[in-house]
Design brief:
Strand content: over 45%
Order of helices and strands: HEEEEEEEEEEEH
Helix content: 10-25%
Structural class: alpha+beta
Shape: globular
Number of strands: 11
Largest sheet: 11 strands, antiparallel
Number of helices: 2
């Protein structure tokens, strides 16, 4: 014969279940707050380092979000401007919005999203661009810079002095190793794109490609080791003289 549990037992079970849910909710909220705080601290540290190197970094105040499954930091009107040793006139990058995201369960990687309009100036060349989806993924490694980057874009449109380019999809991969030997890759680069629309058919033999290229891919590898230093030309000379290929 079935017997119903006493009313007090049912009440205790209900209270225990409620306490467990509250504890789980509180722990999750604490995790989200910690992730969001670390995102903001990481951004501020990165911007402070760039400024100490002579770069100008401007942005609207950061806004936290993403709860409950992710922690995000949204920055509007981001502008990065500075001079480089190899590019007369310097470089300027600006974007309407930058979103930094860390999401469960992959708390070991940072997703950088660039919705809206972006603009890149390299010297005197202006390169505005936008995409239906544009993001980069970097590993989060405490105390060291990211060792790799994976970027992807969908329907990427790029303006240039030659006219507009459009790529149906594109991907970029970078991986580096500061401890690479002569037999290992200090920097590996790969790029691929599908459905490339060119502004016009180029002159000469290259015109045989026409205005549309169905796919393009490239791979490049620099052997190690890469010498330390802050002057790119001096580092390149030392790398070459040390047998770099």
């Amino acid at each position: 014969m079935d017997r119903k549990p006493p009313r007090r037992l049912r009440r205790n079970l209900l209270l225990a279940g409620l306490a467990t849910l509250l504890a789980l909710g509180g722990g999750h909220t604490l995790l989200w707050r910690t992730m969001a705080a670390e995102l903001e601290a990481g951004w501020r540290d990165w911007a402070a380092l760039r400024r100490s190197q002579g770069w100008r970094v401007d942005t609207a105040p950061p806004v936290r979000g993403g709860w409950p499954l992710a922690a995000t930091l949204t920055l509007d009107r981001v502008r990065l401007e500075g001079a480089t040793a190899t590019l007369p006139g310097g470089m300027t990058f600006s974007t309407d919005r930058l979103v930094l995201r860390v999401a469960l369960p992959r708390l070991d990687r940072l997703v950088v999203e660039l919705p809206g309009q972006q603009r890149l100036r390299l010297g005197a060349a202006e390169l505005p661009f936008t995409a239906d989806a544009l993001q980069a993924v970097l590993p989060l490694q405490r105390g060291t810079p990211p060792s790799s980057l994976e970027a992807s874009a969908e329907r990427l449109r790029i303006g240039s002095p030659l006219g507009g380019f459009e790529l149906r999809s594109a991907r970029l991969s970078l991986a580096g190793s500061a401890s690479a030997t002569e037999e290992e890759a200090a920097l590996a680069f790969s790029f691929g794109a599908e459905g490339v629309e060119l502004p016009s058919a180029p002159a000469g033999a290259a015109g045989a490609f026409g205005r549309r290229v169905e796919s393009v891919a490239a791979e490049l590898m620099f052997s190690g080791p890469v010498p330390p230093g802050r002057v790119p030309a001096q580092r390149a000379e030392a790398w070459r003289d040390g047998g770099g290929t």
